[in-house]
Amino acid sequence: MVEKQSNYSLCHGLINREHYTDGYDLADYLISEQNEINENNEFIDTYNSKLEKLLKDSDLLAQFNSILDEQKAILIIDAGLSEAEAETIISNTENYQRIIISL
Question: What is the 3-state secondary structure (H, E, C) of the chain?
Answer without folding.
Answer: CCCCCCHHHHHHHHCCHHHHHCCCCHHHHHHHHHHHHHHHHHHHHHHHHHHHHHHHCHHHHHHHHHHHHHHHHHHHHCCCCCHHHHHHHHCCHHHHHHHHHHC
